[in-house]
Description:
The chain has 94 residues and is mainly β. The protein has one helix at residues 42-51, and strands spanning 3-10, 13-19, 30-35, 54-56, 63-68, 78-88. Helix content is 11%, strand content 44%. The longest helix has 10 residues, at 42-51.
Amino acid sequence: MGHTAQISNRGGRWRLYVVLMGDLVSEWPEHNFGSSPTVPTAAERSRVLTALGFVAVDGAEWEWTECSETHGDDTSPVLLLASIQVRLSDGGAA
Length: 94
């Protein structure tokens, strides 16, 4: 079974998490990269996914989305969100 991993930045802090449908958000595996003005590299994200027990599915790539912090307000701060399809590193289902 596949899952979606996402990385987002809020308040200058990058956070990567794996969405586990049916589980509470507080139970989702996550990693906080800390405060940084730069986006964590693909290699850094891959290492974190591995540490969380996941790997990207074959052929998957990070897809970036830009959205406004306040929906419909194009003057509000921009939030960046990226996602990628992942699976458990042992091939099992979470």
